[in-house]
Amino acid sequence: MPLTEDQLAEIAAQREAAQPTRRATVPALETMLFTAIPLLDHGFVRVIDYMGDDGAIVQAARVSYGRGTKRVSEDAGLIRYLMRHRHSTPFEMCEIKYHVKLPIFVARQWIRHRMANVNEYSARYSVLDREFYIPAPAQLAAQSAANRQGRGDVLEGQEADHVLALLRDDAARNYDHYVEMLNEGADGGPLDDARQGLARELARMNLTLNTYTQWYWKTDLHNLLNFCSLRADAHAQYEIRVYAEAILDTVKAWVPAAYQAFVDYRLGAANFSAQMLAVLRRMLAGDAVEQATSGLSKREWAEMMEILAR
Length: 310
Ligand SMILES: Cc1cc2nc3c(=O)[nH]c(=O)nc-3n(C[C@H](O)[C@H](O)[C@H](O)COP(=O)(O)OP(=O)(O)OC[C@H]3O[C@@H](n4cnc5c(N)ncnc54)[C@H](O)[C@@H]3O)c2cc1C
What we know:
This protein is of the alpha+beta class. Helices cover 45% and strands 13% of the residues. It contains 13 helices and 7 strands. The site of flavin-adenine dinucleotide has 10 residues, from helix 8.
């Protein structure tokens, strides 16, 4: 359960409030606003605020005085043109802010996306919750033999049980030591009146990387789609991919035309180098091209064949 009863009540109260506005709002995203989408075992992502809609992309592209939109099909056509030709700045006119709860090792990957504004829960100021990510059995896999940055077959039987026990025990023991060093009970009072307790900023260094942290993360649509293209991709680690996929669901509700253009021209598309295009042209002309005669390295050839599903 990622949220307490009190937190759920706070969200419900915020969802009750409504303000009239002249700004563009998107009914499909309004229905999702503030609600946590549960992810992994204790994580979530929820939309806190947003600015703009599909119309704002078009409005900026046309530098209009009013809404600047025409027929829906014309607007979608312009958005698709902008996406196809990588005219990125109109997409930067839309902004969105998320509240994310995620394991620290996922946060370390996420924070590499620099084009965003972040404010993280302070473990210098507050005590972190006793919540650790423990993978579901289906995610407990061996190192991939083919990909140094990937997983292979799922662990089974005793090995899986042993690994799960180690993950649980190490996280629990380190957290117990964290609390002991802090000398702070659940009520905030000292566990032992005779001890001062170690500062929070130091005690936290003992925690395992699967401990959950939280942040507010704000970015614009262009950089959000860059994040999603890298992290919703099959090559991204499962634990960050689930967040990117949940974010894509919110993007679909928010800016459906931009979402569809992104799916068509980025997520479901592929880049070919000049040499790959030359190979493709030779194939289309009926030439039986082999890797050795293609001018591509073995790795490029394998990547190209994967894209072509050959
Ligand atoms: C599958 C995968 C594996 C990865 N493996 C590793 C790894 O092993 N080690 C590792 O360190 N990282 C790794 N990364 C992180 C990766 O190298 C990028 O740092 C990360 O994906 C952020 O991408 P980005 O630069 O496009 O995003 P952002 O940081 O959001 O930047 C968006 C764009 O803004 C511009 N920009 C932002 N900041 C600057 C700047 N300071 N100077 C110039 N231009 C800037 C660039 O054009 C950039 O493309 C991995 C990422 C993925 C998806």
